[in-house]
# Entry
Amino acid sequence: MLIFRLLGFRVLSKKDVVENILAKKNKSPAHPVALCFAPSNIALAKYWGKRNTELNLPMNSSLSISLQHRGATAQLEMRSISHKLIINDEDVDLNSQHGQRLCHFLDLFQFKTHAFYQVRLNVNIPFAAGLASSACVFASLVLALNQLHQWQLTTTELSILSRLGSGSAARSVTTGFVEWHAGRDQNGMDSFAEKIPISWPDFCIGLCIYHHTEKSVSSREGMQRTVATSPLYDRWPSCAEQAVQRLKIAIAKKDITLLGETAENNALTMHATMLSAWPPLLYSTTETITGMQHVWQLRTAGIPVYFTQDAGPNLKILSLKEHIKKITPQFPHIEWAHPFD
# Structure
């Protein structure tokens, strides 16, 4: 930070970014209530590591696929004193870790609204289990704030504001295949996600949820540890950027082999990098490894099926609709998502 000050730059805070985006928005009468859904997203080329932890600016670009109907719905109403948080019909202690994180995020917008909120969140995926629960939560909150206050924000602005709550939330403000540009600017205004305008109706993703419990090491902590201690991390950003470009080619050609090989290799590279951190980070369980082996066996039998894995034990299976019947018997509890239905 001292270097930036000496060079004449001011290190921005989250509040600075919010004020920069909302300062010129007209103050319209608020709706009495807003109701917005944001999908969870699964990264095919991962984001792992931040160049700015305050603004959640990533070391590398990433690319994801939304889960369509799996995610978070935020119902938002204004209050006169203190926030009230309800998640899946249970009151949230404002002093708890989740409560404080959500309240601090809502407080960023008070310069414009001078309001507190009652937030009712319904989330239909497990929390902190590698299924991007925080991404859909913060994206749904920003979408609801935009609707409630009639700010008429662009998708780019929505993505930037969502990123302030959780990095991967930048990708949950829209659906389908989404690219999150890492950007270069210190203020983060060029770090946002945008939809890739290609539909692939045959593409499907299977959710293999082995564990619903919250992971012992959060993604935020895991990223910091990996960047600080992994001897392999220097190669990660360029490898991930290359994966993004290969995935865009695969999506344009609807090439499941190129997409699957790229996504699987990217996930394994990320987990190898984490495993080389100290203390080592190992999110996989026995069920995770067994699932990987099932995928490899199916490929040996000629079925184009691949996996990806985020910071958690649960696998996501990547394939085409025509192969679902052959894949499912190996994963009895798999749940299939069809992003373009």
About this structure: The longest strand covers residues 62-79.
